[in-house]
Amino acid sequence: MSLLIKGADLAGAGAGDLLVRDGVIVEAGAVSVPADAEVIDADGLVALPGLVDLHTHLREPGREDAETIASGSAAAAVGGYTAVLAMANTSPVTDTAEAAERVAELGQRAGLVDVQPVGAVTKGLAGEELAELGLMARSRARVRVFSDDGRCVADARVMRRALEYVKAFGGVVSQHSQDPRLAGPDACCHEGELSGRLGLPGWPAVAEESIVARDVMLARHTGSRVHVAHASTAGTVEVLRWAKAQGIAVTAEVTPHHLVLTTDLLAGYDPTFKVNPPLRPAEDVEALREALADGTIDAVATDHAPHARHDKEHAFVDAAFGMLGLETALSVVSDVMVRSGRLDWAGVARVMSVSPARIAGLTGHGRPLAVGEPANLTLVDPDATVTIDRQASHSLSRNNPWHGRTLTGAVHGTVLRGRPTVLKGALA
Ligand SMILES: NC(=O)N[C@@H](CC(=O)O)C(=O)O
Ligand SMILES: [Zn+2]
Ligand SMILES: [Zn+2]
């Protein structure tokens, strides 16, 4: 059984066919249809290497009412993803080899995307004692990305030791950059003129920027790799630009929501827009777009953060932080970055597949669409317009900040190791 993808624009490099057999691309260019082939007519579609999300919250184990590995995998596949990194802030936390192996196994069972567990940096995300980093790395789950996401590794000494430790096996620490002493326990909004007017306790931009600055210096000192999760301010971009010019091993991601949504959406106190780090002013959004286009920011990562209704539908100050992202990310990036000419489709492949796979050490993903490579790919209809409806989701949660918006560019199909997981926008 083989699969022929006919006439796609191959990551913006011109039209061609791809013949896939046993999960591998075996012919590329002009291919005649083999008798046994399933054919996908990809005329007018763009083929990208399968999308990779560096930052997904799947909530299993512990909060299966908000998301399961199966429901999150379905949302990911429909969003064009072939691999996701599952954050460690579950209950219990992914801080042991067994916990990581369990996540990977549930991902395999769901079978829609590769679910690669992220390991906690510290036991229980408590920020004090290092988790079993080496055991997680050597386990069957082969953990390479470590993060206490949801919390910052605030103690510089712990961060330094974590960086030294993961260096031995080529790991990376993904930091939720936020100084808890500057941000304060009640912060729930960007600190600025609007937070004052709304009477909401704010997070200053410097709470993020000071940790990013500290961590790039720790990366330089240790010679180890640090990754900045959900970069959200212009000051963070400046620090990253400086650090990269020095050759320091730092990478960074931006979320789709921080590329578009601004802090003034909080004027209606709608908790859908409550997220950590907070939505920022338009100047920050512009700096993030520019940084993504010029490579200062390496990747787009969703920070897909599903929350059950009874955690989200509260007064603003009491609601949970986070928003959905897996199903809409490609459309948002297409709409804001491609349509404006700031990224071409090769650029989208870079920021949504190639760079995330490289950062995470996933060797089977983010590969060129070429003979001999694993057939993980995403088919995009660049001209389709979609109006986002929060009810039409594979996620178990409904905290979708894009509800009601119309975006140009949509995922048409997803192929995982030669098997279509999504066709015509729906699970295959
Ligand atoms: N982004 C969020 O607002 N929430 C995340 C945690 C995080 O990414 O920091 C969550 O787990 O809900
Ligand atoms: Zn975070
Ligand atoms: Zn997160």
Automatic annotation (TrEMBL):
Cofactor note: Binds 2 Zn(2+) ions per subunit.
Keywords of the record: Hydrolase, Metal-binding, Pyrimidine biosynthesis, Zinc
CDD domains given in the database record: DHOase_IIa
Gene Ontology terms: biological process: 'de novo' UMP biosynthetic process; purine nucleobase catabolic process
Regions that span the bilayer: none
Database matches in PROSITE patterns: DIHYDROOROTASE_2
Catalytic residue list: 303
Enzyme class: hydrolase
GO molecular function, one term: zinc ion binding
Gene3D superfamilies per record: Metal-dependent hydrolases, Urease, subunit C, domain 1
GO cellular component: cytoplasm
Catalysed reaction equations from the record: (S)-dihydroorotate + H2O = N-carbamoyl-L-aspartate + H(+)
Binding site for substrate: 57-59, 89, 276, 307, 321-322
Residues of the Dihydroorotase catalytic domain: 46-233
Residues reported to bind Zn(2+) 2: 149, 176, 230
Cofactor(s) needed for function: Zn(2+)
Family indicated by similarity: Belongs to the metallo-dependent hydrolases superfamily. DHOase family. Class I DHOase subfamily.
HAMAP family: PyrC_classI_B (MF_00220_B)
Protein name: Dihydroorotase
Gene source species: Oryzihumus leptocrescens
